[in-house]
Amino acid sequence: xxxxxxxxxxxxxxxxxxWGEPVYRAHQIWQGLYRQxxxxxxxxxxxxxxxxxxxxxxxxxxxxxxxxxLNSSDGQTVKxxxxxxxxxxxxxxxxxxxxxxxxxxxxxxxxxxxxxxCATGQMGFKxxxxxxxxxxxxxxxxxxxxxxxxFVTNVVLMGMGEPFHNYDNMLAAIDRLNDPQGYNFxxxxxxxxxxxxVPAIRRFAAEKRQINLAISLHAADDxxxxxxxxxxxxxxxDELLAAxxxxxxxxxxxxxxxxxxxxKVNDTREQxxxxxxxxxxxxxxxxxxxxxxxxxxxxxxxxxxxAEKFKxxxxxxxxxxxxxxxxxxxxxxxxxxxxxxx
Length: 342
Ligand code: SF4
Known about the structure:
By secondary structure, this protein is α/β, with parallel strands linked by helices. The chain has helices at about 10-20, 25-35, 50-60, 120-125, 130-145, 165-180, 200-205, 220-230, 235-250, 270-280, 305-315, and strands spanning about 1-5, 60, 65-70, 75-85, 90-95, 100-105, 110, 125-130, 155, 190-195, 210-215, 255-260, 285-290, 320-325. The strands form three sheets. It has a ten-stranded mixed β-sheet with strand order 3-4-5-6-9-10-11-12-13-14. Helix 5 (about 130-145) packs parallel to helix 6 (about 165-180), helix 7 packs parallel to helix 9 (about 235-250) and helix 10 (about 270-280) packs parallel to helix 11. It is elongated. Iron/sulfur cluster (SF4) binds next to helix 4.
């Protein structure tokens, strides 16, 4: 059965017309889904009982089945394992900060990119998620936080999968969540994180959207980057950075570069200098975060001291840089740790 979250408002309106219902019923259902966070047909008390029954018989509300939830020891991070309708698994993570609730969601079950330090990459690609399966992850947490009179403030597409490898479904999901008549989640509160699929970056630049873009860079020269991120063979560092410059020129928006610092691999003075020279003059920000451990990779996190030195070099070249806190490591909810096994 088709997922209700796979429909946008015009699909739902067309369905109402097909069923001989007035179009305003679509708006009532839309409000129920995205303003009230109702997630099964019987809850839609704003429509006639007969239409509720028809909805339940023809559309699937249950996109995700909760399999397991883990809370970090500090209670600030929640990792949820969901089963999809076909039995595949995905994970999503909620990170609570003082004034923010950031949600990290998946766009694919598994991932085809094979980044060596990433648990999702180590498990391989299973399939793309539909737009509705992406939307449903946000709705799950929106509903949960609504119960605490709280709300999601930011959504990062940084969970399982490469968002640009599932470009159309991923952006359709963002558009659905952004709909002012529904959930109305501002475009600027989304961040897409890509490993660097250059044609998709160019396509995204041409769309001139307000969504934030982050690039998982992790190494500044081709030899090292290819050894960590196989995609670099296809889209080498300089080609990737040229696409980033074009994106900045076309959109006027800043790019973030993500850098997982691995002890004596990419936390060296040499890498910092190459990186700083390549980013000089670019409207960008570098986020450095000590590597999160995974079973399939022997590299380990850098030390605080080496991270500080790395930052100082970037500072010296005038490159804005922040050392990020690692979150949820004890429940394997950190970047690169999502592998749909708990
Ligand atoms: S880091 Fe991202 S792109 Fe790379 S394998 Fe993991 S999920 Fe895929």
